[in-house]
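Field reference: "sequence" (input) and "structure" (output). Example, Biogenesis AIM24:
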Amino acid sequence: MNVDVQDEGDSGSGQAVAFTVAENEEVHVLHPQQIIAYQGPSSGRADRLMDVKGMYRKRKLIRSDITGPCRFVAALPPGYRVKTLQLDGKSDLLYDFRHLFFYSKGVTMQTRVLNMKNMLITRDIVKVKFSGHGSIGILTEGTVCEAELDPFDPLYVDAGSIIAYPENARLELTVYGNHLASQHMSYHWKMTGHGPVLFQAGRQSRRFQRDNNEDGIIKRFLREALPFGGVFIK
């Protein structure tokens, strides 16, 4: 399967991504409503309701199973892009379902029910885990960064920027730094453990642009000076 980004222009206009699926290949698209063009046998696309245990019980999640040979184009919302990751065996990373766009034949998707503490903090019931050999496509906002966890030296990552983290990771929602720093920053995950953490830079880039282009000096001062002003003053 070949994935080709058609438009690398301004993120405000979105992107178009073309998929070329060879004969005997199959790709599972988790946001089929974004498919805007398809060329191939009509029987090459089969949509079905997903059975995702413990997640979104009242919502209907539809997955498109697309088999080759065919070619289709998907439109991405403004600010989003698709990054393809290769799997070689079993991965320990847990993903938020909202960050997933596709996965290929040979890859198995499983769910992991979070413990009660993490459910209350993240407001999520489950995360998604992959195993097998093949590729997955994740939806990101901006550049994807990677950092390695340490069992004792914690990594602090903006909570809204996390894409995936190891299943073994220990998480604590917190702020850090001195008194002023902890008051105006967004909540961060304090993470320890083993393995890589994936996070995106786009959310913070838009926040920076908003602070410098849209807000008046008074609003920006209040956000930085008041306790947790960065959390409550948008």
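The chain has a mean pLDDT of 82.
The two ends are 42 Å apart (CA to CA).
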